[in-house]
Design goal:
single chain, 409 residues, nine-stranded mixed β-sheet
Length: 409
């Protein structure tokens, strides 16, 4: 049984929402965040990446950064201004990019569901990033970046969402990356029906936002320990989420580039790959089928096909990213642990094959690999088996924006 709750969203006014809304904190570097926020005092990056307002030598995990985040958040609340909605509601968040559209339900998800694994995970979290977002959440007393969740579709819920979208949206933003973001409020009686429908949903799955989910759990534990009157009904027992039907998600590949050929000549490396895989030159820059990758080496694209005996009944070992890692990156290129090895770079599919080619052509990588995207079914199968995906296996696009709706506690 899944518990979702309406909440009083903190939001900017319609005429300022385009200035406030910002890309997620973890998809930009400090320098990129500073560039995006330049000249815009209302950018939510000033709260989510507050180190951009501090000297470059300041440690991004120092207490000064979290105090600046709290200060900037309070300034945004007064200057934008950000105001708390009058009534507890569920909301609808629609993302449109080119011919793709996905529409999710914005709700306060249950930390209890996260802790009990009713909200399933497929990615390991790193303590440094957990610590960072937990401290940030507690400094702001708010969840400002939503956790991107998915679920197996419920037709009755889809009907309610579609009906609620027939009115004018609360917010509409055409972002600089071409994504159209639209927000609606769900009428109270329809929201109550959605809450009831989700009680029969067996599980939610984290698509993106594992560190935000973990930090919500840790922030709740901290608040509970400091509250002798804890009841379990406090707002800190819930966190901001957007929940999309699985059949609407758009997963792009997460590609790879390796900086050197592990002491091999280009010819020697290529011979080793040919000894393990079927290899042929191609004009195609990205794979069209599961079970193959494209490889760019010395100005030439190759199609690399996995032999059938590399298939696996394990939902993790059968992933293309796993086969590439276990059969090529590790034994041939010496990438023993992709989580820690600094010779490998991961490139989100939004950047396209041009990025893979340019890294090699400019001498920044010796070889690059284009991957076939992981499917939602594969993600769910791994989560259901309580297993962990290899790092950087999925790139979801388009991405939600911070600061449009926040959940305060």
């Amino acid at each position: 049984m899944i518990t979702i709750s309406p909440f009083k969203a903190l939001m900017p006014p319609p005429d300022k929402v385009g200035l406030v809304a910002a890309v997620p904190y973890d998809v930009v570097t400090r320098e990129e965040a500073a560039e995006k926020a330049a000249g815009n005092p209302l950018s939510f990056l000033r709260a989510s990446r507050s180190e951009i307002e501090l000297p470059a030598e300041v440690d991004p995990y120092s207490e000064e950064v979290y105090e600046k985040a709290r200060e900037n958040f309070q300034r945004l609340r007064s200057q934008a201004p950000l105001t708390v909605d009058e009534n507890e509601s569920l909301y609808i968040y629609s993302l449109s990019l080119n011919d793709h559209r996905q529409t999710g339900i914005v709700a306060a998800a249950s930390v209890d569901d996260y802790d009990s694994n009713a909200i399933k995970k497929h990615e390991l979290t790193r303590k440094a990033k957990e610590d960072d977002r937990t401290r940030h959440t507690l400094a702001l007393r708010a969840h400002t970046g939503p956790v991107f969740l998915t679920y197996r579709p419920v037709p009755a819920a889809d009907e309610i969402v579609r009906a609620a979208m027939q009115t004018d949206p609360l917010h509409r933003i055409s972002a600089d990356d071409g994504v159209l973001h639209e927000i609606w409020r769900v009428p109270e009686e329809k929201g109550n029906i959605l809450v009831t429908l989700f009680r029969d949903v067996p599980a939610l799955y984290i698509a993106d936002g594992h560190h935000r989910g973990k930090s919500a759990s840790r922030a709740r534990a901290s608040c509970r320990d400091q509250n002798p009157g804890h009841t379990g009904n406090e707002a800190y027992n819930r966190f901001l989420s957007v929940i999309f039907p699985a059949d609407q998600l758009n997963i792009l590949a997460y590609n790879r580039a390796v900086r050197d050929s592990n002491g091999l000549s280009s010819e020697g490396f290529l011979e080793k790959v040919k000894a393990a895989f079927q290899v042929e030159t191609t004009e195609t820059t990205m794979p069209t089928l599961k079970g193959e990758v494209t490889m760019y080496l010395c100005g030439q694209w190759y199609r690399v096909t996995f032999p059938v005996n590399y298939s696996s009944t394990s939902p993790v070992d059968g992933l293309d990213v796993s086969i590439l890692q276990n059969q090529l990156l590790d034994p041939i290129l010496g990438i023993d642990d992709p989580r820690t090895n600094n010779r490998i770079e991961f490139i989100g599919g939004i950047h396209g094959p041009e990025k893979l080619q340019s890294l090699v052509d400019e001498g920044l990588a010796a070889v690059s690999f284009g991957m076939h995207p992981v499917t939602v079914d594969e993600l769910m199968a791994i989560s259901d088996a309580d297993m962990i995906m290899p790092p950087k296996s999925t790139w979801f696009e388009p991405k939600l924006r911070d600061g449009i709706l926040s959940h305060c506690f």
